[in-house]
Write a structure and sequence with these properties.
alpha+beta, YojJ-like (1, 2 domains, 11 helices, binds adenosine-5'-triphosphate
């Protein structure tokens, strides 16, 4: 028996709205949706997301109060929301700075040093060799690897060096009770550019209490820029890597190598080369 199937009719008011939507409106809405999603992605796992949720609740309550014409409460809430918007840039200065830096940083525009395949392989080999020894001898170390965002402000807090990276050189830097061992060493390309540098501490309160200031300094810097930070614990010898506000702990040499390889890889270099060639041609 044939089934009588009818396509449901779109209600008249919705049809009215749809008839006014053009292709440009669809593009407009898509762009706004992408921007909102990117903002959400940026704020995810940061202190700011809790505040955004609080703000949304406050806005919701204000709308409800307006609808019920509770004039005094809605006046107070409106003032509170305005005050919060003024306070936002002050309270979330680090997050804002990071967001704007992300915006301004094209993949090609970084100021790291170009490495060819051989140099990249060598620096990863020397780094992993040094970290393995530092870990087995329980020598505390903090190694900051610069990526697209320049770290001149961080390296300026320490002692300027500029030496080719070798495992022995790195081991020398972190020998306890020597002038350079305290603080972080900064790596740009295959060179150690500074040591004894001061990093900003994270204010994340949900971190394990096992993590002392060395690890908190690594997470703190990774919240503010795209650097990769390797930490060797003086207490336990464990190796960790901080990136993007997160820390991966208890890494073995193979895992560390797998993390480091793409950081120094030549794919990034070829994009840079494309950019530099394009600039030379201009
Ligand atoms: N803000 C900072 N910037 C750079 N280095 C720092 C900073 N704070 C601490 N450090 C380094 O960490 C050392 C202190 O480490 P602490 O024992 O407090 O941390 P930890 O995370 O428990 O590390 P570990 O497991 O090695 O003991 C300092 O001597 C210094 O070298």
């Amino acid at each position: 028996m044939p089934v009588d199937f009818q396509i449901p009719q779109i209600p008249l008011p919705i049809r009215g709205i749809l008839s006014t939507v053009g292709p440009l409106d669809v593009v407009d809405i898509l762009i706004v949706a992408i921007i909102l999603y990117k903002i959400y992605e940026m704020l995810q796992d940061t202190r700011a997301i809790t505040l955004v949720k609080g703000l949304l609740v406050l806005l919701g309550v204000t709308l409800v109060c307006n609808a019920f014409e509770l004039h005094v409460i809605s006046w107070l809430l409106q003032k509170a929301v305005t005050l919060i918007f003024v306070a936002l840039p002050i309270v979330f200065q680090p997050e804002l700075r990071r967001g704007l830096e992300h915006l301004g940083q094209g993949r090609f525009l970084g100021n790291g040093t170009l490495l060819d395949d051989e140099q990249a392989r060598s620096v990863v080999h020397e780094l992993t060799r040094a970290v393995r020894t530092l870990s087995s001898t329980k020598t505390g170390a903090l190694l900051v690897i610069e990526r697209e965002m320049g770290l001149n402000d961080i390296s300026a807090t320490g002692i300027q060096i500029d030496g080719l990276i070798t495992a022995d050189f790195l081991l020398n830097v972190f020998i306890p009770n020597t002038p350079l061992h305290d603080g972080a060493a900064v790596i740009r390309g295959n060179r150690l550019i500074a040591a004894g540098c001061l990093l900003p501490l994270t204010e994340n309160r949900s971190l394990s209490t096992e993590l002392g200031t060395r690890h908190r300094a690594a997470i703190g810097l990774s919240e503010q820029c795209d650097a990769l930070i390797v930490v060797v614990s003086e207490e336990t010898g464990t190796v960790s890597v901080a990136e993007n506000g997160h820390i991966m702990r208890h890494l073995d040499t193979e895992t560390l190598k797998a993390i480091l390889e793409p950081v120094f890889s030549s794919k990034r270099q070829s994009l840079r080369e494309m950019w530099e060639n394009w600039r030379k041609e201009k």
